[in-house]
Amino acid sequence: MNANEDLEKLLENFPFFIRQNLINHPNNDQLIEIIMDLGRRPEARFINHSEYLSQKIVSWQDIDYITKRISRFSNENRAGIERTLHRISCMRNRQSVINGLTCRVGRAVFGSINLIRDLLESGHSILILGKPGVGKTTIIREIARVLSEEMEKRVVIIDTSNEIAGDSDIPHSGIGRARRLQVSKSELQHQVMIEAVENHMPEVIIIDEIGTELEALAARAIAEKGVQLVGTTHGNCLENLIKNPSLVDLVGGIQYVTLSDDEAKRRGTQKSILERKAYPAFQLAVEINDRYIWTIHEDVQNSIDLLLQGNYVVSQIRQLTNNGKLQIKYKNYQKNNFSKYKNNINRYNWKEFNNSNQIFIKNENNFSKYNTKKLVFYCYSISTNLLKEASAKLGFSPVITSNIEEATVIIGLKKHLKQNLRLKKLAEKTNKFVYSINSVSIFQLTKLLKNVL
């Protein structure tokens, strides 16, 4: 990996006693951040350790010396240095006077995504999870460069804190040919995300630090428009997102569903269970466990379903060895009750219809042919992805149309269907079947499809 860090441009803004120690330090290539707190000794944090830089304590003059040489601090108490990736964050006292600085070293690390380069070529949306400081921003910066330069895609970066492309009107070369949309206030990030899709025709949108419910909903809206997403959020694993009410929409949302007695008995669960509400905004998830050890969820939808059922599946663990080789290990943890439930779905007794048209339905051992009427579905006020997902659970691929006149079956939310009198008249006139569900739920939609078939 090659790093372009412009370390000298950062250090030239520090007092002499700090600058001199770091310039000659043998491990300055592993420097992560410099900490300066009033009345304490300055501290340098490296990848594997931290150490004091001087016996001299930090004074008001030292902090003032730095703040006058960098850009102004934003509402989020962050500032930067022109044409670099470095970030300076400040702490303030009750009178809003700066009494501490955290100076993060920004690096454009070429080759930092070798562990997941093949996933970028798949075209799926990718969510990157990790605790603060593990290098999520460095990873998506390199992803932006690879997608825009090497794969020649139209990439737009939503840069809220100017951490991805630097604190300048001219973005840093580390993002390649990707374009950068700056956000004036962090609370407006979700609006800028939608604006990027509507105004700039991107094929890929890159978002750093998705942290609010509005940003999660905006990510879902972008995914529905067919744009590839690459985003980061704080959290060690997918399970953290399920427990986070602000971010749970990134993985489809969670709701309580009450099963019938027979269904609960068949599944071997309680009557009230947790279930995913909708299709996830991201198809792939990457958990940054360590600098060179990442966990890959190849199917976020399946992983979330297993977690909600009390099961857990780790699709892949990828590790970069000391000699630069990539190791991939597969681990699959699965409980017996889930296997039983899965087999029960595959053995479902399908009804036969006396009609010449045929569809193929997946059985436990092979594809069995059933005679049934031709069904063309039209989704009203529900996502087509939700219908596809419910159909996949039952083992068939539905024919979906965007033209209501071509449909033979209309499926929608009950409250919306009641309000549309024109649709009701059209269905009566053309003898179309109209089915309604009370809420957007995989369970309700699957149950409805069973009745339709």
Automatic annotation (TrEMBL):
Q: Name one GO molecular function term.
A: ATP binding
- SMART domains registered for this protein in UniProt: AAA
Which residue range or ranges hold the AAA+ ATPase domain?
Answer: 122-278
Provide this UniProt record's keywords sorted from A to Z: ATP-binding, Chloroplast, Nucleotide-binding, Plastid
Q: Does the keyword Plastid apply?
A: yes
Q: Any transmembrane segments, and where?
A: none
Q: Name one Pfam family in it.
A: PTPase
* Highest taxon in the source lineage: Eukaryota
Q: What is the protein's name according to its record?
A: AAA+ ATPase domain-containing protein
User: What gene name is given for the protein in this entry?
Assistant: ycf45
